[in-house]
């Protein structure tokens, strides 16, 4: 007797978030990855290391490695005054429509003089572009002299690009830096308190000033700081600064296909 067996294979989509490695993920340790400098802007992002003694406004460490040998991208105010405004744009490749989580780290430096003239301050903008028009900035900042985490939930029915733009408009010393850009399919799952000063642990006070934002703790209370906190700067004899701040934003493009 001959027994016939029919085997049916059903392919089901993976429910876990997929990371688009090679399309937007980049630590800049090996270059720009697949990110590209825009052709229609007036400035370029520079790949720099933190131990560059000639550029005092740049971060002293990158975010990926936390050392002066690690790389990041930066845009610096020019040494000589500029007329008008210049911009440097960094573009991802085309990404598939749907839900995505964009994560990146940014750091902004401006001299004290620049804060007296807000209209002249440099600015970091993030755009989601589905067609050939840039539109309005989805996210902008012009403050924060720490490596700061940002997360953006993106939900769009069209294939899209992400644009990072540095607006250079200041005649004062300043810089904008980017590091550890990543995109994953699905929503952002990591919790992040939606507060201006960030994710400070209980018992630790938040603090901000012209050139810093973060969490402060008295030196005698350092035992309370978790090991995964990042030491940013020591204020002589008084306090430590820790990078515990993050931004979170939701973006939904409701336009139809």
TrEMBL record:
N-terminal signal peptide: 1-17
InterPro entries attached to this UniProt entry: ConA-like_dom_sf, MAM_dom, MAM_domain-containing
UniProt GO cellular component terms: membrane
Keywords, sorted A to Z: Signal
Family matches, as Pfam families: MAM
Domain MAM as annotated: residue spans: 24-190
Protein name per its UniProtKB record: MAM domain-containing protein 2-like
């Amino acid at each position: 007797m001959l027994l016939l067996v029919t085997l049916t294979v059903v392919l089901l989509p993976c429910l876990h978030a997929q990371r688009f490695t090679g399309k937007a993920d980049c630590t800049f340790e090996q270059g720009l990855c697949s990110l590209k400098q825009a052709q229609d802007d007036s400035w370029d992002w520079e790949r720099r290391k933190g131990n560059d003694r000639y550029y005092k406004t740049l971060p002293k460490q990158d975010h990926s490695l936390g050392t002066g040998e690690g790389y990041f991208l930066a845009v610096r105010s020019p040494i000589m005054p500029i007329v008008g405004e210049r911009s440097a744009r960094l573009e991802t490749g085309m990404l598939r429509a749907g839900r995505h989580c964009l994560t990146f780290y940014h750091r902004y430096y401006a001299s004290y003089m620049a804060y007296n003239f807000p209209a002249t301050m440099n600015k970091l903008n993030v755009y989601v572009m589905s067609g050939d028009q840039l539109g309005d900035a989805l996210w902008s900042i012009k403050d924060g002299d720490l490596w700061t985490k940002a997360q953006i939930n993106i939900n769009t029915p069209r294939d899209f690009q992400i644009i990072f733009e540095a607006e250079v408009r200041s005649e004062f010393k300043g810089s904008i830096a980017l590091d550890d850009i990543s995109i994953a399919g699905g929503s952002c799952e990591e919790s992040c308190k939606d507060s201006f000063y960030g994710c400070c642990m209980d018992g630790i006070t938040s603090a901000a000033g012209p050139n810093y934002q973060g969490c402060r703790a008295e030196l005698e209370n350092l035992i309370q700081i978790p090991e995964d906190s990042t030491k940013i700067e020591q204020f002589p004899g008084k306090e430590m600064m820790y990078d515990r701040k993050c931004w979170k934003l939701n973006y939904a493009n409701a336009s139809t296909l």
